[in-house]
Design a protein that fits this description.
The complex is a heterodimer of chains A (424) and B (119). Chain A contains 15 helices and 12 strands. Chain A is an alpha/beta fold. Classes of the chains: A alpha/beta (424), B mainly alpha (119).
Chain lengths: 424, 119
């Protein structure tokens, strides 16, 4: 039996609620803005996928502000990183969407929490600098739990009083797809009956600029040119922040409490490139195998996929590898599912990107649309034969295959479908 | 105590409760130990964990753990705030005997006196 999705919550560059996100996906409207980091107008990186409505730039939690609809107590804030603020808001939305109150998941040993984030480089740096300034004699007692890579699971498990399994996943840009995958397994094994999956990332100089130094970021000053997955002239990704939460439940639990199933998590697969630290296998070998394993787990052939939500981040190497992998799984078999890369609109949210794409997929299934590639001009030659709509297609996607790839060659893919199993 | 020149920028305390800022400014202007008392009480109320009942009237005899709901990490946070504010280090041996607001106030005043004596 496969778990169902009963709620999703969004704090993203293209909206902080379901309605805004869906509208922007349908209209192909991006959430990328001009940015200047560290007061240095000469930095080559000019744009980012910003989160609106929050002020979390300061390392001091007392300076932070967030939308009034969310209540975050002071003693919770003290242990949080900036992206933890986004995450709490996203979880509250997802719970409300699923018809759950916070009290329903508190101290319920059948509810788990699986998280993904890279931690907070900004707070880590701030706290260590503060400690070093006094030669190690004192430091923020919550410095560790607010900044290291497990910060989301530490804080959210205490805040929401989670007593099932709690875990964090660190596989770079595949992290939240791993969180989702292992949540599905835990549910299928009957160890839990509900899992809250959360991915979150902050966007600031400390989180983003190190990628510029890897030469991974676009230096285009215009959003349309900066984030254009699969375009022949793409030159790197656009960094972004936010948080997305998804509530997965076993169908029996959802039915018992009369919750509406929005989509079914049909299966997932993973495989690694075994190649380079920070570059994909040139033919996308690991991603191809991950897609095939996800399809096998979902018991669906490639002909059963209507829409591929590509990982494509707009980097020259990564998009090429993914296009070739998609080509081998689909095009070589004469299959042409629509392929869309939503990072054109959001920028790349790093470890958040997997669950964000999955949640966009849930909106697509619910709303009967397939996001297009509005920034795509001339498609790269590796995309020959791929169906890459520029505009959103107003039709049900059928089954969705959602791809993720991370540093070290981790590749994770998921298959989602409408609750009746097939709509295409 | 002699007046102490301000070293912590006002911006660092800008979003603290007004009582904390006022008490800190008074201490900096006058070196008055009673201002430290007000500051310690205001900070202790501010750093108190939630979910531990309503705040009672706080006095020297109020106990941090039993009366104010503090746990060991929250005590560490409160102490770090005071350390950072006064640019001093309070060791484990200093706080091991701190049970009440009065103990904490005495500890802070003792450390401040030691600091100005050393200077």
């Amino acid at each position: 039996m496969n778990p169902v999705v009963t709620g999703v919550g969004f704090i993203t560059p293209i909206g902080n609620d379901r309605a805004s996100v869906e509208r922007n996906l349908r209209d192909g409207r991006h959430g990328i803005e001009h940015v200047e980091f560290l007061g240095n107008a000469d930095l080559p990186v000019k744009v980012a996928g910003t989160v609106k409505g929050f002020q979390v730039e300061s390392p001091r939690w007392r300076d932070w502000a967030w939308p009034a609809a969310y209540e975050i107590p002071k003693d919770v804030l003290r242990g949080l990183a900036p992206h933890g603020v986004y995450a709490i808001c996203a979880v509250e939305q997802a719970l409300a969407h699923a018809g759950l109150r916070a009290a329903d998941i508190a101290e319920d040993s059948s509810t788990g929490l699986y998280c993904a984030s890279a931690g907070s480089a900004m707070l880590l740096h701030h706290n260590i600098a503060q400690m070093r300034a006094v030669r190690g004699s004192r430091g923020n007692p919550l410095g560790v739990v607010s900044s290291i890579a497990g910060t989301l699971n530490f804080n959210l498990s205490a805040h929401f009083r989670i007593t099932g399994a709690v875990c964090g996943f660190v596989s770079a840009c595949a992290s939240s797809s791993h969180a989702l995958g292992y949540a599905i397994d835990e549910l299928r094994l009957g160890r839990l009956s509900r899992v809250v999956v959360v991915g979150a990332e902050e966007l600031n100089a400390d989180s983003l600029l190190p990628f510029a130094h890897m030469r991974a970021l676009s230096i285009q000053p215009e959003a349309r040119l900066a984030s254009r997955p699969f375009d022949v002239s793409r030159d790197g990704f656009v960094g972004a922040g936010g948080a997305v939460a998804m509530i997965l439940e076993m169908p029996a639990l959802a039915a018992k409490r009369r919750a509406r199933a929005l989509a079914v998590a049909m299966g997932w697969g993973q495989a690694a490139d075994g190649f380079r630290i920070a570059a994909s296998h040139p033919e996308g070998a690991g991603l191809r195998l991950a897609m095939e394993r996800a399809l096998a787990d979902a018991r669906v052939g490639p002909e059963g996929i209507g829409y591929v939500s590509a990982h494509a981040t707009s980097t020259p190497v990564g998009d090429s590898a993914e296009a070739l992998a998609i080509g081998q799984v689909f095009t070589a078999r004469g299959l042409t599912p629509r392929v869309g890369a939503t990072k054109g609109l959001t920028g790349h949210t790093l470890s958040l990107s997997g669950v964000m794409q999955a949640a966009f997929g849930v909106l697509s299934i619910e709303g009967g649309f397939m996001p297009g590639n509005p920034h795509l001009g001339v498609a790269a030659p590796e995309c020959d034969g791929m169906e890459l709509p520029r505009e959103t297609v107003a039709a049900a996607p059928g089954r969705i295959l959602s791809n993720s790839s991370g540093f070290g060659g981790s590749n994770v893919c998921h298959v989602f479908a409408a609750p009746n199993g097939f709509t295409g | 105590m002699p007046p102490v020149p301000p070293t912590v920028p006002a911006a660092a305390l800008a979003r603290f409760p007004a009582e904390v800022l006022e008490a800190y400014q008074r201490y900096r202007a006058t070196g008055d130990a009673s201002a430290v008392e007000a500051l310690v009480i205001a900070a202790a109320v501010d750093y108190r964990p939630l979910g531990s009942g309503p705040v009672q009237a706080v006095s020297d005899s109020t106990r941090l753990l039993e009366d104010m709901g503090y746990d060991s990490v929250a005590v560490a946070e409160l102490v770090f705030f005071l350390e950072d504010l006064f640019e001093m280090t309070i060791g484990n041996d200093d706080i091991v005997g701190v049970r009440t607001i009065g103990d904490l106030r005495a500890c802070v005043i003792r450390k401040l006196a030691g600091k100005s004596g050393a200077a």
